[in-house]
Amino acid sequence: MVELYGKALSRRDIAARAGAFSQFAGVRLMRLEDGVERGIRMLEFRSGTGLRFTVLIDRAFDIADCEYRGMAVGWNSPAGFKHPGLAEYEGEGGLAWLRSFSGLMVTCGLDHILFMNDEPGDTYVYGPRKTISHSLHGRIATIPGKLCGYGEEWRGDDCILWCEGVVTQGTVFGEHLELTRRIEIKAGTNDIRLTDRVVNRGFYKTPHMYCYHINVGHPVLAENSRYLAPLKDVVWAAHAGDDYRKQGVGYRTMPMPQMNFHEQVWQHEMAADSNGEVPVALVNDELGIGFEVVTCKDQFPCMYEWQNLQAGQYALGIEPSTNHVLGHTAARERGELIWLEHGDERRYESTFRILTDHAAIAATEKRIRALSGQPDEEFPQPSGNHIPIGGRG
């Protein structure tokens, strides 16, 4: 059954009330036609609850806009949803990735995440390529995808809105990795389900690193918004080596937009539930709205919190990752880098959920606190304990 306007309706009930289901919910193919976004194909999802989000086909099927009943959830940066033909991945010493960085979710990978890095290129058996140079967060986010399909799929009286596509990151004498992404939401709900499969289609042994840069904006992010997580340990904080409290912003309670704020990044060690799932949320108690991300601990063993609280760029990032924040070289040295041979694959299943009222926020907080207590102290001392990630030798 589809829950619409407080009633559970069968497919027949819905058909009797309108000539097309698109009156209530659906998926629509569109194209952006102005400014730096001109030419990008986009899918618009409407679930029938007031939830609307867009998927950028030509930006790795990442999620761009997201709003619920007129309230923004996702983050729009000054860079805009720039056409991939304008991307400057190699520029500014590897930081030009930031000039295409915007949206609720930006995928990082497929062979590299985190800061710039040079690694040995010997696995690709090509003399002139002695090293592989990586810019910030990898190449995948600005690669156009191939749209395999989208639309409505009725399963009895349930309607699933979906899209699926393939994004290829490949080069001669180098990696050939393929991302297949499927996004689904059941009509009448607020749970966006993301299923990714990364496969090595090439015949070179290839590294794989993966991260979702999930960016929540105002008004979910606001003064006194709270970060909720089953946090067992604060492992690392980028700013802890200086004056830890210098900016007056801890990990748990968010301030209003700040002037001259320097980004803060934390790594937290999370507890998982009996299904191996890790829920993390940002909630605004005043407005009664929140955003929750649920990932699988065995797929994403690490979790970062990104605070970009600068005025004009105000965002909070929830970042599940395959690797510690220590970076690519450390992952290699610690034996924690994933290596894919031809045909090897990794799968990732995640849920993005809108918390629509105080009751939903309370239920999520209760579930999270049952997994692990969360430090009330805004500045818990980082432990430096990056737990070894096994099974990757």
Automatic annotation (TrEMBL):
<dbReference type="InterPro" id="IPR027839">
    <property type="entry name" value="DUF4432"/>
</dbReference>
<protein>
    <recommendedName>
        <fullName>DUF4432 family protein</fullName>
    </recommendedName>
</protein>
<dbReference type="InterPro" id="IPR014718">
    <property type="entry name" value="GH-type_carb-bd"/>
</dbReference>
<dbReference type="Pfam" id="PF14486">
    <property type="entry name" value="DUF4432"/>
</dbReference>
<feature type="region of interest" description="Disordered">
    <location>
        <begin position="372"/>
        <end position="393"/>
    </location>
</feature>
